[in-house]
C-alpha cells in the first residue's frame, strides 16, 4: 500500500487537491491511500507554538508514523523540503509542485519575490485580506492556459483568518532551505509551470541541480498551479515516478 499525503499552498485549502486525486486514481493502483491535510491554522486547526520553521512541520507530521509519499504545492512544497530532512524515515518520496527552497530574494538568491514586493503584499493582506488574496490568485495564474478556470476554482475556497495568513507570510519570509537541499536523499519529482511568476522556473532548475535524486518536468503554457492546469498530465508524471 502507498499513502500519498498532500500539503496545499498559502491562503488555499486542502480542497485544491480534490480533482487531482481523482485523476491519480486512474493511474495508480487501487490500494493507494490519499490524504489532503490542512496546513497549520487552516480548516479550523490551530497554529502550533514555537518557531514556525520547525514547529509547523512537526505539527503536520505528528501522528504519521508510517512511510508516506509527500506531495506539496507552493508553501506546502517548501514545508515538504524541511520535512524530508527532519523525518527521513517517514517520507519515502517527494512530489513538489511550484517548489522553491527560498521564497524571497536574498544574497545569492534572485529566483524569488523582492523584499519590497513582499512588504507591500503583507501590507495588503493586513489591510484587506479578501481583495489581496483574489489579486494574488489572479496574478500567479495570469499566464496559464487555464487561467480563468483556475481563478474561478481557487476564488471559491474558504479564506483562513488573517493571523494565519500573516503567520504564513512570516514563514515564507524567513524560510531559506538551500542548505538542506543537498542532504535530501529521497527521490524527488519536481513539476513546474514554465510561466510561473511566483516561483520562477530558475528555482526549480536550482532544485533539480542540487537535489541528489530529482526529476524535473516543466509544463509549457502553465503558471503556478500545474496540477490544476493540466491535472491528467501531472497524474501521469506521478504515476511514472512512483512506478520507477
Automatic annotation (TrEMBL):
Superkingdom of origin: Bacteria
GO molecular-function terms, A-Z: hydrolase activity
SUPFAM superfamilies: alpha/beta-Hydrolases
AB hydrolase-1 domain boundaries: 4-236
Keywords annotated in UniProt: Hydrolase
InterPro entries in the cross-refs: AB_hydrolase_1, AB_hydrolase_fold, AB_hydrolase_sf
UniProt xrefs under Pfam families: Abhydrolase_6
Protein name (Swiss-Prot/TrEMBL): Alpha/beta fold hydrolase
Amino acid at each position: 500500500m502507498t499513502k500519498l499525503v498532500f500539503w496545499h499552498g498559502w491562503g488555499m485549502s486542502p480542497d485544491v487537491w480534490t480533482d487531482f486525486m481523482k485523476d491519480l486514481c486512474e493511474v495508480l493502483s487501487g490500494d493507494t491511500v490519499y490524504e489532503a491535510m490542512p496546513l497549520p491554522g487552516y480548516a479550523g486547526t490551530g497554529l502550533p507554538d514555537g518557531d514556525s520553521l520547525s514547529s509547523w512541520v512537526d505539527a503536520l507530521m505528528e501522528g504519521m508514523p508510517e512511510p508516506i509519499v509527500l506531495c506539496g504545492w507552493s508553501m506546502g512544497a517548501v514545508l515538504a523540503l524541511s520535512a524530508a530532512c527532519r523525518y527521513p524515515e517517514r517520507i519515502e518520496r517527494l512530489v513538489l509542485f511550484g517548489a522553491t527552497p527560498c521564497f524571497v530574494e536574498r544574497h545569492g538568491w534572485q529566483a524569488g519575490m523582492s523584499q519590497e514586493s513582499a512588504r507591500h503584499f503583507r501590507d495588503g493582506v493586513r489591510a484587506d485580506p479578501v481583495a489581496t488574496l483574489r489579486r494574488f490568485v489572479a496574478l500567479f495564474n495570469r499566464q496559464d492556459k487555464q487561467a480563468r478556470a483556475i481563478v474561478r476554482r481557487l476564488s471559491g475556497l474558504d479564506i483562513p483568518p488573517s493571523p494565519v495568513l500573516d503567520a504564513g507570510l512570516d514563514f515564507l519570509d524567513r524560510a531559506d532551505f538551500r542548505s538542506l537541499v543537498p542532504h535530501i536523499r529521497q527521490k524527488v519529482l519536481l513539476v513546474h509551470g514554465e510561466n510561473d511568476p511566483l516561483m520562477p522556473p530558475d528555482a526549480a532548475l536550482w532544485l533539480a541541480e542540487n537535489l541528489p535524486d530529482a526529476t524535473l518536468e516543466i509544463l509549457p503554457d502553465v503558471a503556478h498551479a500545474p496540477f490544476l492546469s493540466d491535472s491528467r498530465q501531472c497524474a501521469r508524471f506521478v504515476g511514472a515516478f512512483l512506478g520507477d
